[in-house]
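User: Run a structure prediction on this.
Assistant: Running it now.
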Amino acid sequence: MADRGSQGIGKLAAALDNRLKEYSSAGSDFTADFGKISSNYSLVCNTFGEKIPPDEYSVCALRAGDGSASKLKKGDRVLVIWVQGEPVVIDKVKRGKSLK
């Protein structure tokens, strides 16, 4: 039996990807992906297996639930949106069961 958490995450990524495609203008390329911050802060995306150095990707101003700044750490799982070929880390991603 498949892991329901994985199915939910996959559905979320597909929904975000579809929504971004709806709102993208002609010539723009938006793709949603998951990634992980590696030990040297490089980004490794699920659909692009090469390490992307920290100076070659952007990061949104991450905010924790209480409004305080949230910094990326080694090993963090992240949501990445590719905007015209540039990876942009949108936020950290956690499994639903880790929120309890």
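The beta strands are 30-37, 43-45, 58-59, 77-83, 86-92.
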